Amino acid sequence: MTKKHQLWGWFFIAPYIIGFSIFTLSSVLFSGYLSFTEYNLFNPPKWVGFRNYINVLTDVSLWTSFRNVFVYGFINEFLQLFLGCILAVALNRKMKGTGIFRTLYFLPVLTPMVAISFVWSYIYNPSYGVLNYLLSFLGIGPFKYTFSSNWFEFVVGVALMNAWKGLGYIILYVLGGLQNISTEVMEAAEVDGAGPVRKFFSITVPLLSPTLFFLLVIGVINSLQVFDQFYIMAQSANTGANIKVVGTLIYENAFVYNKLGIGSSIAWVSFIVMAVLTWIQKRMEKRYVHYA
Questions:
Q1: Across the chain, where does the E strand assignment appear?
Q2: For residues 77 and 199, what is the distance between their CA atoms, to the nearest angstrom?
Q3: Architecture of domain 59-288 in CATH?
Q4: How far apart are CA 280 and CA 274, in angstroms?
Q5: What is the spatial distance between Cα 133 and Cα 127, in angstroms, rounded to a whole number?
Q6: What does the pLDDT look like over 77-102, one tens digit per residue?
Q7: pTM of the model
Q8: Domain ranges of the chain
């Protein structure tokens, strides 16, 4: 690559770099500064050192919100990756109507989370929700889901809804990974007498491990950033339980109570946790991820 080509490359990515620096990087650095200050939008920031971090780390609500996020993330990621792999393998076969099913599975991904959260609040409603009505025919329930004051039932309800919404996104990536698996490998396994289940766990899953690893890393990051569905479904239920996650703590402290210093410190604690989890996943990559 010549120097002239390199200059053209920098020229074309310059708008993104400038926009990222002005609107994203500067905001991140400023929030890092605010995390060491007492600031309420009306008075100049007052430097307080590590006091915000001490208050945040000794607050039970922070660790409760992390508990909610971890439980939500585990259920959501397990369901999405497990069901996504099975459905992607089914949709990867050459059958009539697979294009229609692919479109139907992906439609919820395009629907705004706010609309999905309101719709599922009606589905979950203990009084007139359709889900309890359908489960009653099987002799199961009724459940309160996100209308429950129990944190676990609430978190499971949100996780089930989000797993359904994001399933098409997972299927799309897994289908892309399946396209890269050689048909010769599958044919050789069939010649050796491998059945569908053996081929799935011994060939498909190992060869899909780079795709699954990517989806897992992105899923963990998205789980720690979850906000919309928890906030909306808690407001829709109006039970007073007010199940919080890290995102709602940041929002309430920064924009409801005008404690931008506290909100920024919570955001940076969340970032550190996110970075540690990503590092752990990266360390496990060499052991569990197989690149062809």
A1: 37-38, 46-47
A2: 23
A3: Orthogonal Bundle (1.10)
A4: 10
A5: 9
A6: 999 999 998 888 888 877 776 778 77
A7: 0.88
A8: 59-288
